[in-house]
Amino acid sequence: MKISLNWICDFIELNTDISTKELVETITLSVCEIEGYQETGTHLKNIVVAEVLDIKPHPKAEKLIIVEVNIGKSKQSVVCGAKNFKIGDKVPYVAPGITLPGNIKIEKAEVRGMESCGMLCAEDELYFSDDHSGLMLLPQDAINGCALDLVFPDQVDVIMEVDNKSITHRPDLWGHYGFARELGAIYRLPVKPLVMKSEFLKGEGKGIIDVDVNCKDLVPRFCGLSVSNVSVTDSPSFIQHRLTRVGLRPINNLVDLTNYVMLEYGQPMHAFDAEEIPGNKLTVQIAEEGTRLMTLYNKEVTLGQNDMTICDANGASVVAGVIGGLNSGVNEKTTSIFLEAANWDPVAIRKTSTRIGLRTDASQRFEKALDPEISMLAIYKAVKILRRVMPDIKISGQPVDIRGKEIKPIRIKTSFSFISKRLGKNIEEDEIRSILTHLGFTLKEEGNDIYLDVPTHRRTKDVSIPEDIVEEIGRIHGFNNITPIAPLFPIKTPAFNLEHQFRAMGRTVLIKTGFHEAYNYPLTNQSSEDRFSIVPKGIMKLLNPVADHQVQMRTSLLPHFVDTIKNNQKITLDFRVFELGRIYYKDSESQIKEPHKLITGLSKTKSSLGDAFFQLKSYTYNLMIRLQIPHIEWLPLEDKRTEFQHKHISAAIYSDSQFLGTIFSFSPEYMDRLNIKGDVCIAELDFDKMFLLEKREFTYKEPPKYPSTRFEISLLVPQRTFYETIAELIKGVDPLVSKVGFLDVYFPEEHPDKKSLSISIEFRSREKTLDTETVNELQDIVVQKLAEADYNLR
Amino acid sequence: MIKQNLNTMGQSFQSEIEKATNIDEIDNIKVKYLGKKGKLADLMKQLKSLDKEEKIEIGKQANLFKTQFQDQIKEKSKQLKRVKFDQQMENEWVDITLDPIKTQMGSLHPITMVQNKLEYIFESMGFQVLDGPHIESEYYNFEALNIPTHHPARDMQDTFYFEDGNLLRTQTSTIQIRGMESLEPPLRIIGTGKVFRCERTDASHDSCFHQLEGMMVDKNISVAHLIHFMKTMLSEIFESDVKVRLRPGYFPFVEPGFELDMACLLCQGKGCSVCSRVGWIELLGCGMTHPNVLKAGGVDPSKYSGFAFGMGMDRLAMMRYGITDIRPLHGGNLNFMRRFTLK
User: Fold this and answer.
1) Interface mutation target, options A513, A544, A549, A580, chain B, most CBs of B under 10 Å
2) CB contact under 8 A, B162 and A347
3) Is A412 in the B-facing interface, judged by CB distances under 8 Å?
4) Is B148 a member of any domain?
5) Which among A489, A520, A775, B99 would be 20 to 30 A from B87, CA to CA?
6) B189 to chain A: nearest residue by CA?
7) ipTM attached to this prediction
């Protein structure tokens, strides 16, 4: 919303020492956010009134004319293309050497052989309007040579852009008067009070239009007045210029009038053509389901049982508080009007405006809960303006003033000490009194206690408790005038969030081994999940998704993660990524669960079979060891395997007997289906489960005192023998077997279904150095036990 | 005769050892003179034929030679070894500008980095880090936070609702209520995490983003405390002494409520292109906790007061790392993630 400083100054006399910058900053710091401002009309001091003395055709150009003008001190001759003026008219003149806004430099020039000294301007060139149809015609009483900023002093203005979001809670700030009131409080200056002479609105005879309000609980107030003997013309230039400056396009005197009053008081109005109201009666009522109405934007809307309308004998003619119907307003033939200024229920207006998808200047204001007390003041103001322009207007009958839902008075009990205590600064009592009085509050003091009556313009919404008063005092005093004070707290370490620390540790270990952390959206859709035949378990579906790919919560990290892998394979085949995030579902008891899962992925160019698997297994093992997970085991997936997982290149990860997750490559079919290249392995771990496990503790053990003896064997075993099976067997042979380690595997050509497995075995006693005899004996037993299991030496 | 041989031996040893240029020659000399079948041993064998006095004299002399030879050999070999190793080192050259092993470091997500840092700062100031569910009830997300039923924030255009009436939290402020419910004042808590809004995605908006929420509740907490704390906290986050200002701002869960601006770190408030010439950067919302919110959290507002603040971590991360588009924060594109590995 744009506001004009001159307009504000209609109500308050500000000290001229205050710079624009300072003023804007003051409003931002004490009232609401000013997003920017513009000083207008500064160029007008260089433009002067010129009287047209003579108009001659251009000898060489049919479309041009030569205009001789009197600019007070001298006469000038200007070549011009416009034709909307005659001798004796007064027009704006710019002398050579002057630069107009938009960096247009005026220079003495020759136009088709004729000298042109300066320029005569249209309205748009001087930022009065966007009219470029001809020269701007100045008032006849303007003195030749007089600078335009003196002719149009209101044009020299500051236009400020208010951030609408910063005044959603302030219904009183949706018109200029509200800002004057705020500045009055800030600078402790008087503000012209809003007063009304009610006899001024009393007319002759009976009103032309009757009004009935059927839904009074939604209409705090409805005011109206019939006015006849009006004619539709252009607004006075003063009104047109002001509206233009704050971004509204002038339409005609009556529409402009309602807009003008709205911008001044914040109260939206509507001017009906009183002769175009069938039945001469307006009824405010809830629309019938399916009511159709053509708005003045020429767009049909369908209304329902929660929408308020203003109806005449032919049905709904206005969507109450939002927009007028196509035929409800004034037109060029209008001679009598019914001015309406109502106060509508904010929630109802917001809902209607949302439902029909139309947010207007009116609905935007009504949904903030306007003060019903300004409705009649708005009508009064409108009539005052109207009468100034058209002294012959006639008011018919009495004003309509129907009150519905009452806005209850609010009295707040607080105290001077509470205000100071909550602000953390001692504010003088006199200052508190002065601020509140300027803001319109009425004070009654009893000792330290203050009883405050909240003014009507603040009681509809935002002021109701002592804390609200703290805010009023704080912002007008200036929050930035409060000296910061360190809060006093006992020295105490907080309870550390161990889960966060556990996850942070996991991430740190992973990035040290080359993994990049990815975030994927927790929202997904079913077809993405379906790719992995994820068993649907209590899927959380959104009621109001905004995009097709985000309609429900993910129940697995895998689907998006696979996309991450796939997309990154376009960049390189060699990378490692991970995501640590939540999945979401409802369990069998309808409890919503959000467990943290870790997914890691390793992609590489294909080399030997299982390469990616072994690498990722090693990184995963590293991670789990660092996270102190006890007794990690890797077992065939078997019945835990899902279709997309490779039958042999996959494993279930256990800690003791707790299943923690899986590590797998994709099945060849899925590699093809998902269009994944190279060698890829993925591991999924239940992070919350890992957190809850009883961790392995670091306990120090004396290094062995006696040396170990190591020997190596090579076995020729069937290809699909697990090393771990053999290792377990060897470990079980004798307690003196202290370590079994994998050395190497290779596939001898001469035994196509076998592999050669090299294993190192270490014997050690914690009591003595083993003698050769014992060692030999142990070796023999190992070999013998292996042979018994059909694992023979090569 | 033997005596003469001994002297000749001494001379030849001297000349040989002086001439020796590498360690192998020294080994040869050692064998030749001091070995079991070396010259000295030979000579000692001849001693048998001599008379007693001569035996003693020459024996003495020979022993003298032996220790002298040993010392000289030791000294010379030390000297030659040094020469040899120097030579070897001189010949061993590698191109240290190569990186053939390429151990790659991974990267943390920028939001994780910001979050870690914030949590670290707050924990060191005695704050407890809390967490809450992303799927929330209307109660925690709105009602308890003093957002009435008809408040625009509750509209379907802003909030993702589920079929069962629950919703995706639109703010981390839910953590305030959960924190007050589980802890007794005085309390200092923060919560970080994902929040969701029905936003169409563009360069600066996303349906899923990240917030940090903080709260302090004790007896007599005032606006002056809030300002002090914000200044301290932001100075820690931005690692410089920041200037802040408060403006009135409206959030239903605080009263009074503020928008907090920080003086642009680049121009110190003078106005530059980074702060859109305003000099100030709008950073976060904060305020004194509304009595209704305290009540909802089970805290007596007549005894306690508090302040709360919330800020977007995405924006913080974007400011800190110079990210101009919010969208790559999701999806895990390597070209994006690799930027967060310092190379």
Assistant:
1) A544
2) no
3) no
4) yes
5) B99
6) A494
7) 0.88
Whether B224 sits inside 8 A of A483 (CB atoms) is: yes
Which of A622, A627, A621, A620 minimizes the C-alpha distance to A694? A627
What is the chain B residue with the closest CA to A29? B247
A-chain CB neighbours of B223 within 8 Å are: 422-425, 470, 474, 479, 482
Same domain for B126 and B210, yes or no, is: yes
Contacts of A770 (CB under 8 A, 6+ apart): A706, A709, A736, A763, A764, A778
Query: Residue A386 is which amino acid?
Result: L
Q: How many domains does chain B have?
A: 2
| DSSP SS3 for A487 | coil
Task: Write out chain A residues lying below 8 Å of B194, CB-based.
Answer: 522
**Structure confidence at residue A250 (pLDDT):** 93
**Tokens representing residue A739 in the block:** 């370590």
B17 found inside a domain: yes
Q: For position A535, what pLDDT does the model report?
A: 66
Quick one: B146 and B256 in the same domain?
Answer: yes
Best residue of B162, B201, B244 to probe chain A, by most A CBs closer than 10 Å = B162
Q: Is the pLDDT of residue A672 over 90?
A: yes
8-state DSSP, B144: G
Q: Which residues contact B133 (CB under 8 A, 6 or more apart)?
A: A592, A594, B169
The residue segments making up the domain with residue B224 are 110-340
Q: Cα separation of B153 and B169, whole Å?
A: 12
Domain co-membership, B259 together with B317 = yes
Query: Residue A598: what residue type?
Result: L
Task: Quote the distance between the C-alpha of residue A735 and its chain's center.
Answer: 68
B58 part of a folded domain: yes
H helices of chain B, in order, are: 2-19, 23-34, 39-46, 52-91, 110-124, 138-141, 174-182, 223-238, 291-296, 313-321, 334-337
- Please list every residue in chain A whose beta carbon sits closer than 8 Å to the beta carbon of residue B157: 354
Give pLDDT tens digits for B150-208.
Answer: 887 787 678 999 999 999 999 999 999 999 999 999 999 999 999 999 888 888 889 99
Mean pLDDT score of chain A, rounded to an integer? 93
pLDDT of B270 higher than 80: no
pLDDT at A531 over 80: yes
